[in-house]
Amino acid sequence: MVPDLRAIEGRAEVADVAPDWVGYGAIEGLPETLAPVQADGTFSLPLPDIVSTESMTWTNPQCDGVVDVSNPGAQFREIIQLQARTGGRLTNVSASTISSVDSTVYVYVFATEATRIVGRQVCARQDVVTYNMRIAKGWNLKRWTLSRSGAGLNERHEVVAPVPLVWTVPKR
Questions:
Q1: Mean per-residue pLDDT, 111-139
Q2: Closest CA to 154 of 127, 120, 122
Q3: Are 76 and 53 in contact (CB under 8 A)?
Q4: N or C, which end of the chain has less CB nearby within 10 Å?
Q5: Mean per-residue pLDDT for 53-72?
Q6: Is 70 helix (H, G, I), strand (E, B) or coil?
Q7: Is the pLDDT of residue 32 over 60?
Q8: 124 — phi, psi (to 5°)?
Q9: What is the superkingdom listed in this entry's lineage (predicted)?
Q10: Three-class DSSP category at 89
């Protein structure tokens, strides 16, 4: 399992300009913490020690296959985007790469207990969802990958070692 993380380390860009600061914005259950952004765009945003959590369903009952959740009582909170301020303008930013063929999104996940989530489900149109997550108690970094495969979609969730990420305005 990856150790409990203490901060989101990364670089922020909004229209090729480093914002003034990044923070959690109005994410319910998270404190309004801000981090200054350096001239080169780098920042270190402290992750809160305590957050409100909720139970999450990792399986889809309409799909075939089994997903094993080792600690069904564990609760979670996810951070998928931050808010950046450039001048007087607020913008949502995410650590993602999106194309017409595939996408990768990084998500910070807080867990109340260590939990292993492993398995595979096949859904409509032959969509395949794979989980390979060994989540430590506290903060973790999840990589969520989507890729096209014929008429279906492959979706993969895995916990990865922390790396500094580039946070940008999501492309649509």
A1: 94
A2: 127
A3: yes
A4: C
A5: 90
A6: coil
A7: yes
A8: -55, 150
A9: Bacteria
A10: strand
Residue type present at position 49: D
Question: Regarding beta strands 152-160 and 128-135, do their DSSP bridges make them parallel or antiparallel, or are they unpaired?
Answer: parallel
Structure-block tokens of residue 165: 């990420």
Ranges of H-type helices in 9-163: none
CA-wise closest residue to 66 among 8, 19, 127, 130: 130
Provide the pLDDT for residue 3.
Answer: 57
| The two structure tokens encoding residue 26 | 């109005």
> If you search the block for the tokens 């909004």, which residue do you land on?
14
**Closest among 166, 172, 159 to 14, alpha carbons compared:** 166
The torsion angles phi and psi of 125, rounded to 5 degrees, stand at 60, 20
For the chain, domain boundaries: 7-167
This model's pTM is above 0.70? yes
In this prediction, residue 27 has a pLDDT band, given cuts at 50, 70 and 90, of confident
Q: Which of 57, 70, 65 is nearest to 128 (CA)?
A: 65
| Radius of gyration of the chain, Cα coordinates, nearest whole angstrom | 17
